[in-house]
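Task 17 of the worksheet. Students: predict the tertiary structure of the chain below and write it out as structure tokens. Keep your answer in the requested format; marks are given for formatting as well as content.
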Amino acid sequence: MTVTVCPSTSDFFAEVGDADLSQPLSRSDLSAIEEAFWKYAVLVFPDQHLEHAQHLAFASNFGPLETKLDVYREGNRARTPPEIEDLSNLDLDNKIKQADNRIRLMRRANRLWHTDSTFKYIPAKVSMLYAREIAPVGGQTEYADMRMAYDALSDKMKMRLNGLVAEHSYRASRARVGFSDFSSEEDASLPPVPQVIVRTIPESGRKSLYIASHIDRVLGMPRDEGNNLIDELFVHATQRQFVHTHRWRKNDLVMWDDRCTMHRGLAYDDERWRRDIQRATVADVGNSCDKATSMINKE
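Model answer:
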């Protein structure tokens, strides 16, 4: 049976039915999913039953997989393989993390608007988040369509943003939630990296804002001026008309295009309710600045 695509809006967010991601997909079904993904940017696959290997096998259809950051490792044990980021509130003994758990405190930054891995020189292309267990109250995820947000900018602002580059760092987003307890080795492993503020998505040709809470400064601009510009873009891009909220169901898998969306997890009582969600992430093919230069050279 061919997969079915049920859009929530004309070109953002859709639900995919008749797809069993625990099994290898036919070429026609995978092509249909890819076509929908490049159009809608966020796809929801309900009622999936995935082991780690099956989760990774589906993600591998879209490119090379990232591995989890060293800052999230707890000793020699792990709840997930290296290619799956454990975003749960559970510790290595499968119990709810204590309030002062270091990883829990770092993860609070996931409640800020962000795009995955922009603090890496080669950022994320696609994220796939799978809900093994969900909290009964709260914990929704909001997604912002950064293509629509760019389209709605004034011509003056578009001209101002043309060619601008921001510096992103993991430390910057954690500082926004009051976390700064990094070792010198961790700092050295996550140096600041440049990313363009506007990028073009090759599959659609559409331009998109490319911002995140990981931004520390705009290069070539006084810090106050750059910060004010980024704040203005965040306010613009997260207006209600650009945002869709996903209310999780157990066994949902949601995949999104990191190049043209932002997202944030909404709060829930993470000292009371168990929430086990796990993410596989596909790396982009290069740094966004290098990609922009390459596209200009082709024109």
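Marker's comment: The first strand starts at residue 4 and ends at 7. Confidence is low (pLDDT under 50) at residues 294-299.
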